[in-house]
Amino acid sequence: MKKQALTRRLLSYTRSSAFFLILAVLSAVISVGMSLWAPVLIGGAIDYIVAKGQVDFPAILRILIILIASILIGALFQWLLAYATNKAAYRTVNDMRTSVFDTLMRVPLSYMDSKAHGDLISRVTVDIDQISTGLLQGFTQLFTGVITILGTLLFMLSVNTAITVVVVLVTPLSLFVAAFIARRSSGMFRKQSAERGELGALVEEMIGNQKVVKAFSYEARAQAKFEEINQRLYDSGVKSQFYSSLTNPCTRFVNGIVYALVGITGAINAVYGRLTVGQLSCFLTYANQYTKPFNEITGVLTELQSAFASAARVFEVMDAVTESSDSGKPELTEGGSVSVSHVDFSYTPQQKLIEDFNLQVIPGQHVAIVGPTGCGKTTLINLLMRFYDVNAGSISVNGQDIRNVTRASLRAQYGMVLQDTWLFSGTVRENIAYGRPDASDEEIIAAAKAAHTHNFIKRLPQGYDTVLSEDGSNISQGQKQLLCIARIMLTKPDMLILDEATSNIDTRTELRIQKAFAHIMQGRTSFIVAHRLSTIREADTIIVMNHGHIIEQGTHEALLQKGGFYAELYNSQFAVPADENE
Amino acid sequence: MKYLTKFLKDFKKELIIGPAFKLTEAIFELIVPLVMAKIIDIGIQNRDIGYILRQGGLMLLLGAVGLCCALICQYLAARASQGFGTKVRSSLFAHINSLSHTEIDRFGTPSLITRITNDINQLQVAVAMLIRLVVRAPFLVIGAAVMAMILDWKLSLIFFIVIPLLALTLYLVMAKSVPFYKAIQKKLDRLSLITRENFSGVRVIRAFSKQETEKKRFDDANEDLLRASINVGKISALLNPVTSIIMNGSIVAVIWFGATRVDAGSLTQGQIIAFVNYMTQILLALVVVANLVVIFTKAAASGARVQEVFETVSSIRENTLGETKTISKSPVLEWKNVSFSYDQTDEYALTDISFTAHPGETIGIIGGTGSGKSTLVNLIPRFYDVTKGEILLGGISIQDIPLSELRAKIGVVPQRAVLFSGTLEENMRWRKEDATPQEIQSALEIAQASEFVSQMPKGLQTEILQGGKNLSGGQRQRLTIARALVGEPEILILDDSASALDFATDARLRAALRKHNKGKTVFIVSQRVNTVRRADRILVLDDGGLAAIGTHQELMKTCDVYREICLSQLSEEEAAGE
What range defines the domain where residue A457 resides? Predict the structure, then answer.
């Protein structure tokens, strides 16, 4: 995106806080004006203090009253400037966040699946923050910086042209110094942060996996790798630290030159009566402040660069294509029959996955999906729930093509328990009632009992009001799965999608999960990603998948007779391989 | 801060010379207003242009020399602070490497990682500021006040009102806003938490069509953040206006009272200008002092956190007394009444375990989550030390064997299949750095990995991304098994290491292990009955205790816990069948 287009788009988000932006600009002009006027007034007052007995008190008093008033007005507008900038910045950020999140709620699942979540999260948080600090606060700083420089020159011109010329002649020096430091240190900082990242990655690997490091006695070799990066970090660190620390002394030096030159030319002018001592003092104050805005502006320019980069990243998310709208479509009628006819599907056109897949499921039937890990079982779930749309053919539920009904009504027919149990940070009660927030306590407890988790919940410190931590790490994997089952028990869907995989679950809990599954599956059309033989054998149809393809389909007996992939899978698990008998 | 100051000693030279140069610059800075006052009072009064030029030249000279001093100081500060950071980092990394799992578990790896990165960075900044500003800033405040006193002590009384007032303002605004910033960070964390939850749970959320609820949850958190940000904005926006009112107010006072002093003949016009100048210098220096306070408070907290790690010593000690004993090849591993508690309390993770594993034996370990399976195998390479009882290898207590020698005998395949960034070959050389290509190849074959490795375009030279993200779970797991097999360890520990493999690969792997690992002791930890059922002996763990030990057939008859586990996974006839 071009910078202009970016700026225009960013501005469109500031529209709601246009008032505060205008206020900020006005306040900047007034407060800068007041702060520049003060040295003039002070100089004027000093001119009334000439020597012993030559002090004009009434005149000084008049000037001081004006000075006090200007100070107060300046301070007020300085505060307003900061306040209005903050308000405009945070509001804009707030709007942008809402808008990005809204987009994320409406993008198809393929978008979410294809993007790194960490990266998306940082776009929602860090990048938008960067826009607020870099762009909005940067903008006001840039603006005040520029009017300070222009204002200073104007005030100086109005007092004395010759000295102003001297100051203007020194200006390139400040620009040069500021640019030199910015260029040098930014290059070094990039190098340093790259090396810091490298070191951080190594530390994360080696300390995060200490057990492996120890088991293989790898400590000395890890240390050697660490020292090597650490030494490089030292070299770039010294340089970046040194260059960036140049700013203050160099500014002071340039200021010192301006100050001395203003002092000399001012004094000479004063000798010839072309300048009063008060005016000289005024110039000296300006000289002291002259380099500051230059430094600020160079600083802001780099901030602006990264703010633009962040804005581009945020807008990229906002521009993601969202799902087609459901409005106007009818609701799906209740039932439990599913018909898949001639379905083709693949995530990428280059790699065909499912071709001409047909399946008829009558209400109450159980379909088992089997295959090795990573065989693409989730693909089927994606299609049934319409997380992804089929490429060809159609899937119908109760005779209605699922693309012709609302997604909400389709998904409401299914109860889904995945292996990746998902609970959110909230109470146990809220988590169970996720599908039906209006459920009564009795209903919630009944669902928990049906899922064999009621007794467990009662033993938690706050029972149903226990707050689950972010990833639900304060309860075991097995209990999480039971809570997810309770969640489904509460919504009483017509159809089920279950994942039986129960790694990391202890035997007793696993028994409970089995019972809960059996209970919930009674009389419901079910699609089960099956791992247990009993489930597989009792299923009405078995779908065998491998490498994303559906390779076999049929009942247990039929598939065993066929002697294909399923038969091999079955035998490898339950029969003894020849060479193991020796 | 004993450990940390030790590191500073290496930079004594920089710590003394740096501030000395900075002080010189500050002194020059304080002289400049005086020189200017002289130009006004003497040069302009006497219309002496030569004097003006001479004094102006002096100012330029002061500036140039000051710059040189400052540059020297900045350079020394950069060298000392980065050098200090580098040294602390290196020795902290070495120290963390020396800690045992007990200590690492106590700190938690994320915390250790922040300590070695962010905390040390924070300390580095503090050292740089120590050299650059700790002498300069307070000196400027005091120096400017003293200079003002020398000019006219009565008028300088204004300074003694203004300095505390400014300091108080800075302190109040900061003290008020800092807790707000912490609160804002928390709200921001909550926002990313909600975002993260929405990504991880996207399927569930859409299955329940809860997008609108989630949007509201996000909007509420967002609104909350907005309010907090604006509130803190209101407070911190006060800082500049208030300080400017105090500053300019005091200048008004200087002019008014200065005017009376000049009228009385005890002060000159030029000196008033110098006064105004000193006032500005004080304000700038005070802002620096306030920032220094913040930097050092942060650094003190970081320092304490780094210090804490240094003070922690490994609970696993090498036995340095007594002669080193060499263990025979293919030793017997013997457990004698071993109990273990993670936190040295009465809560035992393992209680009273005794058994003997002979070379060539395959030992299966089964039990529910939390029954102590992983804990048991973690004690063999001394990741943790036993609390009671002892473990003997070839008749020698493992605590008397040098750690490196003990661990060299053991190949460990951890639960989590971790590979490290670098080439596949580098990963294969973890156990034995000088392994031959044949050794690596044979390990890959046993681990059922040679086929997919040879299919990769770059084979063993394939670059592994951090965490092995560019490989599938099953591939990673097979590679970690191969890694442990390189160099033929005498004891092999597979800690639930086949969970991501499909049944067929798992079976082939076990068969290959059996064939190639003759004379070696193999421990297989698993939740799957099928993985352990053909082991020579199976240890059944229940709640930290050894429930039974025996073959599959024996246990089916005698052990209730084992039978329960079997029947939860297999049908009656499958469990009974051979």
Answer: 422-492
10 Å CB burial of residue B353 (0-12, 13-18, 19+) is: buried
CATH number at residue A35: 1.20.1560.10
User: Amino acid identity, residue A569?
Assistant: L
Q: How many domains, in total, are found in chain A?
A: 2
Residues A310 and A443 in one domain: no
Closest CA to B278 of B150, B402, B108, B377: B150
B79: chain A residues, CB-CB within 8 Å: 238
CB contact under 8 A, B233 and A568: no
| ipTM metric | 0.80
Whether residues A464 and A316 fall in one domain: no
Are A317 and A426 part of one and the same domain? no
Give burial (CB, 10 Å; 0-12/13-18/19+) of A9.
Answer: middle
pLDDT at A553 over 50: yes
The answer to whether B414 touches B499, Cβ cutoff 8 Å, is no
Residue written as token pair 């505390």: B164
Cβ–Cβ under 8 Å, residues B486 and B431:
yes
Tokens of B183: 């609160």
One domain, residues A302 and A451 = no
Among A249, A270, A407, the residue with its CB nearest the CB of B44 is A270
In chain A, what residues touch B505 (CB-CB under 8 Å)?
372
Q: Which pLDDT score, from 0 to 100, does residue A579 have?
A: 39
Is the same domain home to A303 and A435?
no
- Token pair for B434: 């000088």
Contact B117, A272 (CB under 8 A): no
A65/B contact by beta carbon, under 8 A? no
A539 lies in a domain?
A: no
3-state secondary structure of A337: coil
Whether residue A256 is contained in a domain is answered as no
Nearest to B418 among A82, A212, A214 (CB): A212
pLDDT for B420 beyond 90:
no
- Nearest to B357, CA basis, from B299, B409, B280, B405: B409
User: Smallest CA–CA separation between B84 and chain A, in Å?
Assistant: 9
Q: How many CB atoms lie within 10 A of CB A180?
A: 14
Give the CATH number of the domain where residue A488 resides.
Answer: 3.40.50.300
Q: Bigger pLDDT: B20 or A184?
A: B20
- Phi, psi angle pair for B520, to nearest 5°: -110, 155
> Based on the domain organization, do A296 and A444 belong to the same domain?
no
Following CA atoms B33, B34, B37, B43 in sequence, which dihedral angle do they give, to the nearest 10 degrees?
A: -120
Q: Tell me the residue type at A540.
A: D
Contacts of B64 in chain A (CB under 8 A): 253
pTM greater than 0.90: no
Interface check for B253 against chain A (CB to CB < 8 A): the answer is no
Whether residue A428 sits in one domain with residue A313: no
What's the count of helices (H) and strands (E) in chain B, helices before strands?
23, 12
Task: Report yes or no on A367 lying in a domain.
Answer: no
Residue A146 lies in a domain: yes
User: How does pLDDT run across B343-374, given as a tens digit for each residue?
Assistant: 766 678 888 899 999 988 899 998 876 678 88
What DSSP designation does A502 have?
-
Q: How confident is the model at residue A575 (pLDDT cuts 50, 70, 90)?
A: very low
CB pair distance less than 8 Å for B96 and A234: no
CA angle at residue B247 from B242 to B252, to 5 degrees? 120
- Cβ pair A241:B81 closer than 8 A: yes
CA B187, CA B221: separation in Å to the nearest integer?
Answer: 7
User: Is there a contact between B504 and A572 if contact means CB atoms under 8 Å apart?
Assistant: yes
Alpha helices in B108-210 (DSSP H): 109-114, 120-132, 136-151, 157-200, 202-207
Q: How far, CA to CA in Å, does B221 sit from each of A129, A424, B198, B211?
A: 15, 15, 14, 15
Determine contact: B227 vs chain A, CB below 8 A.
no
